[in-house]
Amino acid sequence: MPTDCLFREDAYLRDCDATVVGLTDRGGIVLDRTIFYATSGGQPGDGGILTTAAGIEIPVATAVYTDPMKTEIAHVPASPAFALPAVGETLRASIGRDLRYARMRMHTALHLLSAALPYPVTGGSVGEADGRLDFDIPEAGLDKDDITTKVAAMIAADAPVSMRWISDAELEANPSLVKTMSVKPPMGTGRVRLVEIAGFDLQPCGGTHVNRTGEIGVVHVTQIEKKGKQNRRVRIAFA
User: Fold this and answer.
1) Which residues contact 73 (CB under 8 A, 6 or more apart)?
2) Which DSSP category does 78 fall into?
3) What's the distance, Cα to Cα, between the start and end of the chain in Å?
4) What is the per-residue pLDDT across 81-126, written as a single tens digit (0 to 9) for each?
5) Residues 219-237 pLDDT 10s
6) CA of residue 103 relative to chain centroid, distance
7) Cα separation, 65 vs 79, whole angstroms
């Protein structure tokens, strides 16, 4: 059954109560609702703790989607040695605040990077200390300091970050919203989530972000690599 993904509406949530609705063949724990982000879009799945009513803690290594439509999330225990809870059991789900918040800041910074470099994106990765985007750029000549300055200005603007939902049909009617070439936004459920950084960026994204760009902090472009005839990889990191 579909998991109620609380992180999509509030990325700052760190705990929630949930009910076990299933167990996967690989030992994953499926809950009716969760604050754990599941691996997708270049952002790693969250780790954390599931605590039973009896006080038993089950460390979670990551969270993953179980279906191509990305509607159901399984929480993967850090070790198969832990006894799995029973279907119907109520748990307390908790994630690590520092790791999640760092990824929220970095993911938002990568949106700003895509605004500073308005080229099609061919790939990307979100980390807690750094991240990168690959761009389809026919010519080189990118300057690290120039890009850093552009991103810094958008961070300093402390622009609000918001999200809203549109229908699949609305996205199909506005294909320019999609920046990524390698990973298309999930469609088929009837709606798509848009993330907007006021005045700078608007694109479909299911990741977690901060509420204002000022929360990102200082970011520098650390490396620009040539990864093919028209592919440039731009790496950024927190200062």
Assistant:
1) 3, 5, 30, 31, 34, 36, 38, 63, 64, 65, 66
2) S
3) 42
4) 888 999 999 999 999 999 999 999 999 999 999 999 999 999 999 9
5) 999 999 998 888 999 999 9
6) 8
7) 19
